[in-house]
Amino acid sequence: SGTLAAAFAIRTALRRDAVFRQRDLRLVSASQVTPEILTSTDVVYIGQMSGFSAILRDPMAQASSFRVDDSLVSMTDLPSGKQYRSDGIELLDEQISRRDYGYVARIPGPSQNSLILIASLRDAGLKEMVDLALDGERLALLDSRTAGSPQGLEAFYQVRTLGSANLGATQLLARPLRSQGIWDKSAAVPEYRPIAVPTGNLR
What we know:
There is one protein chain. The protein is α+β, with helices and mostly antiparallel strands. It has helices spanning about 1-15, 35-40, 55-65, 125-135, 135-145; strands at about 45-50, 65-70, 75, 80-85, 95-110, 115-120, 155-160, 165-175. It contains five helices and eight strands; from the N terminus they run ααβαβββββααββ.
């Protein structure tokens, strides 16, 4: 239910944007993402880290410096070896503050498109990452901290909650991705043609 709410929040926001109203926005499950979809359009994944299908997981695993642990409730930062574990499914007393972790990334796609990841270990983190994705100022600040990152970027956040209320997110890491060579270039892919936006509509 948390993933559905997050997906519809993002879709509603895109529908309000003049640029995206001109584009075909389809809501599909991660398991329905095909190579044809991944090479012909922009893809936004919204959900828990455990929900990645293989076609999305493989490029992320190559480009990211994080690994989702086998338990699916923790992630490890490979350069430092530090593990970050969500306690969102362990603490049942709603008066106890909980920790979850959120993750956002922009990965260059195989045909000049983009793969956007808005994800978390559990629902609390996902809700906060959606709020981040809908905040233009916070996104611009993230982009500036990673110098635009033409190779893509990833950012990792600790999310604090109290019961069903989020108490905010703290950015722990933000860095460029290692995206060079993550896509198989041996097969031809269709050219990505984004819709031209009239200059007067840019803000």
